[in-house]
Amino acid sequence: MSRPGWETAADLVVVGSGVAGLTAALTAQRAGLRVVVVTKDTPDAGSTLWAQGGIAVVLGDVVGDSIAAHLADTVAAGGGLVDEHAAGRILTAGPDAVAALRGEGAVFDGHPDRLARTREGGHSALRVVHAGGDATGAEVERALLAAAQREELTVLAGHAASTVLTGPDGGVEGLEVRDDEGRAGLLAAPAVLLATGGVGGLYETTTNPTVATADGWALALRAGAALADVEFVQFHPTALYVGASSRGRAPLVTEALRGEGAVLRDTGGASVTAGVHPLGDLAPRDVVAAAITRRIGDLGAEHVWLDATGIPDVVARFPTVAAACAAIGVDLARDPVPVRPAAHYSCGGVVTDTRGRTGVPGLWAAGEVARTGLHGANRLASNSLLEGLVMGRRAAEDVAATLAGPRRLTEPEAPAPMPTTIADRAVLQAAMTRGAGIGRDAAGLAAASDAVEAASTDRVPATRADVEDAALTLAAHALLAAAGSRTETRGCHVRTDHPLTDDHWQRASATVVLRGDRLHVGTTDARHGGAA
């Protein structure tokens, strides 16, 4: 066994500094735990900062709305795979979670006693609270980082988590991290909470920032935890189209624009969603994204148009979108906006229960990296920030309760450097975009797997980029394996060679586990959670 360059100890190590990670870290520290937050870039570099739409929550002041209605909308969007028990518990905890966030100093639009609301796709009521018009995530991140500073929370920036360390009994003993040059450090801890965000880096174009490289999926798989529902990658219907050669993060054009009356039209001026769904442009995201993709393909176009010119004071209401549009010469108040789908959100992830526990003792997960059962086969708009708030808090409370009992005394050692499979990122992203985007078939999935394998080498990760590329490689194979096993169309998993939904044999979540160096796909009953 090798020794790292430095070592320290904590009760809980939180990996990630977005809404779920900071909520968990603050909750745990206030419970008396020694907490270290690890983030591989600056603390505000994750996806939370970029969330535009808002937080879907029932606060009891909208006539006709209820937790039951919010749950019904969530289940309807989730394509038959929502765990209704877990979803109900998360949504019910929403009002307290938002109140706690406001207690940290977050300021939402509207009067303090009656917040402003908007509606997004799949929602039957005005229940989405927002901040700064379309800058909700930025306000959430600002408030949580300010709270972290007030609480003197220890944040280790510029370090990527490379390995969750486990002992002979399989329980967590700590975390190995590496800086940008690959120098290793070790944090000894009986508890690790993964809050690493999403997997947008699997694709050439995404609404995610560059740090979203599936790190949590890889960390969990290698530690012995299961993933589920990873084939369900939600493509946001309306990312700003900035040109045919664009790569990386595409600016998001929030769904709230359509909630306020913006309409989707193709390049010939016809409605994109007429006759597709009763909710039209406010149908669930998988429906709208698929409709846009089909229309682009039928017309041989590069994008469709989102016309928001009829919304009063649209620039003031949506300043973030307006600024992104202005950067490409589009006036949001006067011009239609060119949009097309882009990889946006992972509906699946590390399997957890409603306390954030994985199947590995000492390992918790919360936020987008986790699969609680709330999203099923397709996430309802603006349920993500809510889940991060609720589950970050719950996971931390469970960690504190667990560590209040007897503890194992351990002295973890960093593993000896071992070669791992690392694919060329550009080749991987191109292969995943072609074969595992919107509209998949067996041949395309197999070709993507072959391309990733052919572009891979086995070597010891030497830098942060190597750690990220190793995570992307493992995550790509996990997603492709799950997508290949689901021979039906459900939610945001569209199989062009299997266009029908099979509720008799395939209404269950596919799980992925790593045994040795091989991934294995199984099933679990989505109504009860857990892994096969």
From TrEMBL:
Q: Which GO terms describe its molecular function?
A: L-aspartate oxidase activity
The UniProt keywords, alphabetically, are: FAD, Flavoprotein, Oxidoreductase, Pyridine nucleotide biosynthesis
Q: Which organism is it from?
A: Actinomycetospora aeridis
- Cofactors that this protein relies on: FAD
Q: Return the protein name.
A: L-aspartate oxidase
Family assignment?
Answer: Belongs to the FAD-dependent oxidoreductase 2 family. NadB subfamily.
Catalyses which reaction? L-aspartate + O2 = iminosuccinate + H2O2
Using the record for this protein, list the coiled-coil segments as residue ranges, or answer none.
Answer: none
Q: Which compartments is it annotated to reside in?
A: Cytoplasm
